[in-house]
Amino acid sequence: MINVGVFGASGYTGFETIKILRQHPQVKLIFATSENSAGRNMSDIYPVAWDVPLVSSKTAPLDEVDAVFCCLPHAASMPTVRAARQSGVRVIDLSADFRLTNIATYEKWYSVPHTAPELLQEAAYGIPEINRPQIRETNLLANPGCYPTSIILALYPLLKAGLLNAQQPIIADSKSGLSGAGRKASLKTHFVEVNENLSPYNIGQKHRHIAEVSDIVNRFEGNGDNIIFSPHLVPISRGMLSTIYAGLNEDQSSPQLQTLYQEAYTGQPFMRILPDGQLATMAHTQNSNLCVISITTVTPRQLILCSSIDNLGKGAAGQAVQNFNIMFDIEETVGLI
Amino acid sequence: MINVGVFGASGYTGFETIKILRQHPQVKLIFATSENSAGRNMSDIYPVAWDVPLVSSKTAPLDEVDAVFCCLPHAASMPTVRAARQSGVRVIDLSADFRLTNIATYEKWYSVPHTAPELLQEAAYGIPEINRPQIRETNLLANPGCYPTSIILALYPLLKAGLLNAQQPIIADSKSGLSGAGRKASLKTHFVEVNENLSPYNIGQKHRHIAEVSDIVNRFEGNGDNIIFSPHLVPISRGMLSTIYAGLNEDQSSPQLQTLYQEAYTGQPFMRILPDGQLATMAHTQNSNLCVISITTVTPRQLILCSSIDNLGKGAAGQAVQNFNIMFDIEETVGLI
Amino acid sequence: MINVGVFGASGYTGFETIKILRQHPQVKLIFATSENSAGRNMSDIYPVAWDVPLVSSKTAPLDEVDAVFCCLPHAASMPTVRAARQSGVRVIDLSADFRLTNIATYEKWYSVPHTAPELLQEAAYGIPEINRPQIRETNLLANPGCYPTSIILALYPLLKAGLLNAQQPIIADSKSGLSGAGRKASLKTHFVEVNENLSPYNIGQKHRHIAEVSDIVNRFEGNGDNIIFSPHLVPISRGMLSTIYAGLNEDQSSPQLQTLYQEAYTGQPFMRILPDGQLATMAHTQNSNLCVISITTVTPRQLILCSSIDNLGKGAAGQAVQNFNIMFDIEETVGLI
Amino acid sequence: MINVGVFGASGYTGFETIKILRQHPQVKLIFATSENSAGRNMSDIYPVAWDVPLVSSKTAPLDEVDAVFCCLPHAASMPTVRAARQSGVRVIDLSADFRLTNIATYEKWYSVPHTAPELLQEAAYGIPEINRPQIRETNLLANPGCYPTSIILALYPLLKAGLLNAQQPIIADSKSGLSGAGRKASLKTHFVEVNENLSPYNIGQKHRHIAEVSDIVNRFEGNGDNIIFSPHLVPISRGMLSTIYAGLNEDQSSPQLQTLYQEAYTGQPFMRILPDGQLATMAHTQNSNLCVISITTVTPRQLILCSSIDNLGKGAAGQAVQNFNIMFDIEETVGLI
């Protein structure tokens, strides 16, 4: 059994992490923290019929755990991660604090100083389908953002094959359920404002997640400056679909692309490439750790990828547990299917 | 033209009132107040393609208006209403502050002292289908609550005919859309908490609106203590349906009850009694000032009334304008159909 | 391993049954039938990333299975159940065909002749919390309806204790998600007709499920004729809440009722009685096999029970697998938590 | 008063047309047809508290009307339109039958022969903001499709100014509410399939509406072959948002584009260009005849247009009445605000 703690258990991501860990046969949950709800139980703040006590992070026994999931907001995560690492605890951090390799980029997008630059060295950005070896070795796993996961998994086979036309923008028109906006009450998440509405926000090159996507595209010698990313909120609790428009630098037929994608993801338990003619929808992945991708060729040089994940599953808590399993040499699907 | 001001224009009720008044051919909107958004425009706080400037109530020119709609929360309404009345302005108050005739009852349910008891004398509770003459004469119209409107209009023909069995509880199981909970951001109105959920709250005899219903039932010599009222929130923006279980003190057939209801509401432009076999749904009244009622006889002594209103229409702003029209001798349906 | 078949796999209930059985460590799924989709796969008709081939019931190998789940519509179920029983296969039937003990009652409510009366003898109505011993022994399990499950579980402690006032109607105002209406396309299930609407249907004493509730109430010497049941459709995919108004024949305090309910359900893994002051909502049970009940005392003789289940979980497929576990001496919660 | 008939009154478009016409002070509704519901009333098939009798189109008195709105499906529209024109009645046709100028294009996309080619000559495609003069003169108004309206109104100022880069695809990622899919019951419109889901369909260059957009782009000497159009269904009853990615052939600043759009739509009562920094959402136009557009510059050569309409308003019935008003020399906004 692996002893585990969860920081930031009261938000949607923390709650989802705990829901998964409760069912995980090789995990013992030692603590779950919430500053606002310390002293209360999970069933006091969520309509659930099971329970987990919530404690202040100040009283969380770091010396009793092998790993922690850090589900705190960006910036708040850094000191907690440092404390855990100093106690020799392995960390899966779901915030943005250790995702970007370049400190200046982080500080530009998140408008706060990076207070734990020494830890960036050991951090591994964790999309198992792309960099499982680094994940296995790391003590500090930077769990990707939801939008970047959906976009990068769709682009990865093209990036690896060097097929993207660097002269053309990659356009990701993404749609997200509301749990992605967090549990904090605000007018933007008020039912009446959201229901029967669909709203774009931070479109173009303004959303922070664009930096994560650029980073990965650049690693594959793609043109990371060339991404246009337009998120939209839809009146759905959980789910994410990115419709991605990409140009190719050489002609590709539908069967060729099918083969390319099938091969890129052979043996990956959470990836599904839909057969030609089917399109990925949010329903394909809801309440799962799956990523489902469809490929539509408009012309031999122009394609549309639809990439579906659950923003709380493969987009957050699910992928975090998948990374945890890899880090602790547990079969990758345990607790997730 | 009648010059009108609206206090509390930024909430859902105030916004809906202004939407109706903008289309009203005999109204000139002089001011709309919002303390939080003073200096901004309506299009800054709502996604609308028209505009109205918002001012602080301190600068609202009471001397330029004939009437004000007061869409403030309870307790906040009293001083504003007093100021308006002292300026000789007729008031349509949408809060609860002047609905209850008994001060002790008000103070018990609302947990604040009533600071304008002298005005209660001139206040008229305004459901036009029941007491149009008092509405016509009053200078201070207490606009009813949404739940009470749906329940009282369903019971009124039985109350008038003395048919309710006073020994049996009247059970109102009510379902409301979320705009009834106001526009203030809170976890209770967060999309993810509300969506795909249905929640009872304050059921039994705990919701403030029970006092309004009791008041009216008592006026008709019914047993006002005998009401059980169970509100439920449903994942819908606007709409209200009360399913009411009532016992009779003498046998009544379906045709007799149809006649009773049709006659009680003859000539009322916003009332519809559905023919036997049809049931009222929320869709019957959404975006209107209608109240639609269906009558189902379980036994000759036991019936089920389904009463549908739009909580922002007949349950708030619509009825307020209907009352305003009566007060100012305008045809009752102007601006409302 | 127990070999299992599913008849009627393409509807929501059949699909949900298969989803649960796929995860069940002691079940091997031998066949799944669908007349309309025979020859296709589950992923052709649902957006799922796993697969099960669908066959015609004519080719279903009854001789290879130990048990079948029959998820067919009422009337269609009878011949299939008979064939299975003649092959010596144990049956969990999710239709209404074997729920009612009295043939005349069945034929009155379902308007078809009962063509397998000889099987009624061996059928057991299966709510484990009430009659686990009969379930263990039976070869033909009649899985209860969703509404009856929510209502009976709420009333059972009162029935057992003889506390219900037989002179007063038991009023169940129930709200159901749309999956309860089945997957057949119709105007009643069209998104635009359902969305932003709430509709009562078959209210009073007109819905078929009232017969099941009466049956159980009568078994406990309650007044089974005294039930008023009003179902409502709400714009939610899955979930059910019954708000039940019941009169008592002697005074009971809230703590007494808490004790009564806690004791009645001690050791039942899928039952939760909420502490005084909390109210059951649909979210308490969604995507689970739980039944969550809250108790509200209006007066010492009048109470309101809120009973929440997932209509596809404890209201159909979940309870079916729970019954299956009991029949095959498997721990009751396997596959369900 | 202008005497008007409506063919195909029972679908969402026909119903919406009648709702608008009922409030139109210069219209007398002479007949409304429905083959499936002939002999019934509107309140039998919709939950409305007003009524209109429905008759078979065979008995519709063409000689009593000045104009008809034809809300029939494509192909079914042609014979009805011909009959109306032969009676000298002016026609507003909401189907696709007279929208495309080229018969071969029509027959390719709609897979039926065009049986009324002689009428194409007199047909005018009706987007008032673009070609009001032709609308005024025509006797056969081809009312545009919903998606094309949202896209063309967004592109028009760029087309007129010759600013679109013809070498780059115009990508329209569109999101539509479900009423756009019609009222016919089908699995695709079943509540449970649609709710909490978002589905792309016919993406790339497969949706029929692409032909309408191409036609207009070509008229302005743009590259009509260069359009990529990806519609998505969202769980919303009515509303449409097109997010459009367009490249320019010369640098443009945000203020320049604001000016361009403001000037292109000066004096158009149903057009709103949002100020820089605001984004169009579905809520901006719901239940109205408005089109609201926002402009976001990603680079001086790359922009994102968000174009919001109500698919039943400016996307169908609203625009049809606007066109009718122009044809009959009525002020354009009558009945629509």
Q: In words, what does this structure look like?
A:
In chain A, helix 1 (12-22) crosses helix 11 and helix 7 packs parallel to helix 9. In chain A, strands 8-9-7-10-13-12-11 form a 7-stranded mixed beta sheet. Chain A has helices spanning 12-22, 42-45, 77-86, 103-110, 117-120, 128-137, 146-161, 191-194, 209-219, 254-264, 313-327, and strands at residues 2-7, 27-32, 67-70, 90-93, 123-125, 140-142, 170-176, 199-200, 227-233, 240-247, 271-273, 291-299, 302-309. The first copy, chain A, is built from 11 helices and 13 strands. The longest helix of chain A has 16 residues, at 146-161. The first copy, chain A, is of the alpha/beta class. The mean pLDDT of chain A is 97. Helix content of chain A is 31%, strand content 21%. Chain A folds into 2 domains: 2-121, 3-Layer(aba) Sandwich (Rossmann fold), CATH 3.40.50; 147-311, Dihydrodipicolinate Reductase, domain 2 (2-Layer Sandwich). Chains in contact: A-B, A-C, A-D, B-C, B-D, C-D. At the B-C interface, strand 7, strand 8, strand 9, strand 10 and strand 12 of B face strand 7, strand 8, strand 9, strand 10 and strand 12 of C.
